[in-house]
Amino acid sequence: MASIKNLKKDINYILGDVIEECLSWQLMNPTEDTKKSESIIDEAIATFDDLMAKINSKNVDNQKAHFRGITAELEQKAMALLGKVNKL
Question: Is there a contact between 73 and 51 (Cβ–Cβ < 8 Å)?
Fold first, then answer.
């Protein structure tokens, strides 16, 4: 099992990249409405908070399965967010 520290770093880097892509899109398209990109940023921040809360929960029976689930959820949500960024 990968360390919790590395999982936290992965969450931070992946969702940070999504936010960075949204901000880059806003800079490249200054005349466009930014409400969609701002909602994607808000969703990425909410996802970050949710995943960190799940990592820090103490009452887990099977840690290995718990962290695998968090990793799978990160991948699923990151792909959904990137799909939304690509549609901008």
Answer: yes
Tell me the two tokens of residue 22. Answer: 């949204």
Residue 3: what pLDDT? 85
Q: What do you get for the CA distance between the two ends of the chain, in Å?
A: 36
Neighbour tally for 69: CB within 10 Å:
12
Q: Per residue in 42-54, pLDDT tens?
A: 999 999 999 999 9
User: Domain limits at 80?
Assistant: 4-87
Q: Do 11 and 51 contact (CB within 8 A), yes or no?
A: yes
Q: Name which of 10, 7, 25 is nearest 68 in CA terms.
A: 7
Q: Check: pTM over 0.85? Answer yes or no.
A: yes
Q: What's the total number of domains in the chain?
A: 1
- Half-sphere CA count of 24, side-chain side, radius 13 A: 8
Residue 4's identity, in one-letter code, is I
* Angle, CA of 54, 73 and 62, to the nearest 5°: 50
